[in-house]
Amino acid sequence: MTQSIQDAPLIVAGRRFASRLLVGTGKYRDFEETAAAIEASAADVVTFAVRRTNLGQNPDEPNLLDAISPSRYTLLPNTAGCYTAKDAVRTCKLARELLDGHNLVKLEVLGDDKTLYPNVVETLAAAETLVNDGFDVMVYTSDDPIVAKELERRGCCAVMPLGSLIGSGNGLLNPATLALILEHAEVPVLVDAGIGTASDAALAMEMGCDGVLMNSAIAHARHPVMMAHAMRKAVEAGREAFLAERMPRRQSASPSSPFAGRING
Amino acid sequence: MRLLEICFREAAMQIQLNGEPSHFDGEPTLAQLVDSLGLSGRRIAIEVNEEIVPRSLHAKTRLQDGDSVEIVHAIGGG
């Protein structure tokens, strides 16, 4: 007899998502590959960046939003490349205009271009401004439980600590601090940044994260579409393992086959 | 001829468009600017002097000398 697993959808700021895998659209060869990978990932939430339009070039060049339809996916504009709260707020306002009033954003304010580590002082300031302006803010941050709580207090609808540096593929370098964030959070916690392969995503989900956001792990795999599918299964497997509640760890062995009735007994 | 050129220069206005100086005769509206750039109907957002100008106001918003205009769109990102 199988026991059905009752999972709730991921709910962020009142929006319900069947998939707990969120994916980016950067670093792909072309929009065709982007669309195929996102399809294979089964993600509902898809991130993108806001940049100056190239002027004087081919006006018919394809647009990301033609490949990734806002009617099919929940688009999550990011503030990547912003180093100040002011620039991040400007970028979010441009994104809201670009998406006809859609107010869900991924806030990230970076500290320097070598580590892309979050500048939490600017991030906290931007979060406060954006929440007061009516944005639903999913926030990229360091894996610091105190900062995570401060961001939650400022009204962020999801806290997204890094597993390791953006684009590094180093996985979860500090599961202990992630566990502390999870223990105290009252909003969804998603690992954003650092995922390298399927086991990283599964581990984050097994620990009880509400979701995982990734870009490079899929786009920079040799076969992105296949990796997107692997990530889909990893996130699902990790989530189910979390809900199923793993066996306790023990120091000694425990045979799976009974001792009684052995022919040498 | 030279005098004419000077007069013309005085009549033209200069704005910063996506960080680059750009010259226009008269004072076009944002909608005219977008059209002249071949961007009509594209998914873009516009900021003038660091303030969003909603799409519904592009036809009514006239650019002025010295304005700083940013035109952005969506690109791939994480």
Automatic annotation (TrEMBL), chain A:
Its quaternary organisation is:
Homotetramer. Forms heterodimers with either ThiH or ThiS.
Q: Which gene holds the coding sequence for this protein?
A: thiG
One GO MF annotation is: thiazole synthase activity
In which pathway does this enzyme or protein participate?
Answer: Cofactor biosynthesis; thiamine diphosphate biosynthesis
Keyword Cytoplasm applies: yes
**Membership in a protein family:** Belongs to the ThiG family.
- Is Cytoplasm found in the keyword set? yes
**Which region ranges are annotated with the description Disordered?**
246-265
Q: What is the top-level taxon of the source organism?
A: Bacteria
Name by which UniProt lists this protein: Thiazole synthase
List of residues binding 1-deoxy-D-xylulose 5-phosphate: 167, 193-194, 215-216
Alphabetically sorted, this entry's keywords are: Cytoplasm, Schiff base, Thiamine biosynthesis, Transferase
